[in-house]
Every structure is written in structure tokens, then in C-alpha cells.
Amino acid sequence: MDSLEKFIKENRESLDRYEPSPHVWDRITGQRVIINRKLLVRISAAAAIIVILGSATFIYTSVIRKNKPADLSGEVREMELFYNSLANTLYLQAKPMLTSQPDIEKELENDLQRIDNICSEIKNDLKDNVSNQEVIEALIQNYTIKIHILEDMLRILKENENKPEKRKSNEL
């Protein structure tokens, strides 16, 4: 124990007999109020900063979520344009060969229409959940099926066109 502490313990009663004046107590409590007000102002400022940062973060993430679909939908539109352009090119190549076979032409148009309907449904799903990679992959898969159907049809039509004896034997 150090000497000051020892002195205070030994002389406690004699030291406690003096009371500070009311003026001193007013200054002490006034400083406490000032300290408490400063603390309150700091706490309020910190809370306001937290609320502002939280709101800014919420708004920022909301805007990013809204912008991502727009960016992604641009990519989807570009993909859709590519596949539809390819499908139209293949269909235009097959069209002259299909005029002599209206049943096959009708069946092909029905199949392509079904695929287009499925793609429309997938695009509606894409609007609901644009960031879902599975939905995008399903859309690509359906466009790929459409391209394969057209490529196979075009290949078969070209093979049949090059074999006139088969066509004659099938005629009545």
C-alpha cells in the first residue's frame, strides 16, 4: 500500500467532515450534464450515421438488383436474336424444298411453333427470376433443339432432292 492511500485510510473521518460549498456541487453536476449531453450528441450522431449508411446500402443493393436483370436481359435478347437469325436462315434454305411436300412443311411449322411457345413460357419465367442460370440454360437448350430440327430437316431434304429415283418410286 502506498503512503497516500495509507494516509487516507488513517484520516478518513477527519477528511469527511468538510463539505464542498453548493457552488462547487453546482459546477460538478453541471459538468456531468455537459458530459452527458456531449455523450448523448455523439451517440445520436453515431445512430444517425448507422441509419444513413444502412439506408444507403439497402437502396444501393436494390438498385443493383434492378439493374442486373436489365443487363442480363440485354444478353438474353442478344442470344435470342442470334438463335432466331440462325433458325430463320435455315428455314429459308429449307422452304423451297418444302413446297413440294406440304405435309412435312406443316409438321415442321407446328414443331417450330411448339418450341417458340415453350421459349415464350421460359422467357416469362426469366422475367420472374432473371438471375436463375437454370432458366437461361433451358432457353438455350430449346433454341438449340430448334436449330437441330431445322438442320436435320434441311439435311434430309437435300439428300432427298439429290436422289430423284426415290421420289419417282414414291409417286403414284
Structural class: mainly alpha
Instruction: Summarize the biggest pleated sheet.
Output: none
Total strand segments: 0
Percentage of residues assigned to helices: over 70%
User: Can you count the helices?
Assistant: 6
Shape: rod-shaped
Unreliable residue stretches = 67-71
How widely separated are the two ends? 126 Å
Order of helices and strands: HHHHHH
Q: Any idea how many domains?
A: 1
Q: What is the CA-based Rg, rounded?
A: 42 Å
Give the overall average pLDDT.
Answer: 76
**Estimated share of beta-strand residues:** under 5%
Features:
single chain; 172 residues; mainly alpha; 6 helices; rod-shaped
Structure in words:
The chain has 172 residues and is an all-alpha fold. It has one domain (19-165). The chain has six helices and no strands. The protein has helices at residues 3-10, 12-16, 22-98, 102-128, 133-161, 164-170. The longest helix is centred in the middle third of the chain and has 77 residues, at 22-98. It is rod-shaped, with a radius of gyration of 42 Å. The chain starts with a helix and ends with a helix. The model is unreliable at 67-71 (pLDDT under 50).
